[in-house]
Write a structure and sequence with these properties.
The protein is mainly α and 122 residues long. The chain has six helices and three strands, in the order H-E-H-H-E-H-E-H-H. 18% of the residues are buried. The mean pLDDT is 90.
């Protein structure tokens, strides 16, 4: 972000695995640090956070809901590496976590298929 790569390549699309790792959780801290250190960005930091796509493999409903609130349902995609079952959360297949949130139908559709169709031109 601070190197200007996303500005130099505005059509670059990046999918961050595992719901972006720690990035979404520390985005506010990064934004504060960038501002405090005086880095000049062409756009507000939050716009860059939304430049990425994030997969949904995060396993906790509250964490996925936070992700959707932070970046929008149009930037979250179903993850496909559901490598283990979480019986206590009834997460035995990739769609289960998304479906457990009871999102509006249009948001659920974006996450489960619409975003991938758009991103990959399917």
């Amino acid at each position: 972000i601070i190197s200007g790569t996303l500005d130099k390549f505005p059509r670059l699309q990046v999918v961050l695995p595992h719901a972006g790792g720690s990035f979404p959780g520390v985005a506010g801290r990064l934004d504060h640090g960038i501002t405090k250190k005086g880095f000049k960005l062409a756009h507000p930091f939050r716009d860059y956070v939304r430049r990425f796509y994030y997969d949904s493999i995060i396993y906790y409903p509250a964490a996925l809901r936070f992700m959707i609130e932070l970046v929008g349902a149009d930037r979250v995609m179903i993850g496909s590496d559901n490598s283990y079952e979480r019986k206590e959360l009834a997460l035995d297949w990739p769609n289960a976590l998304v479906e457990s949130l009871k999102l509006p139908a249009e948001q659920e559709e974006l996450i489960l298929s619409g975003n991938a169709v758009r991103l990959f031109g399917l």
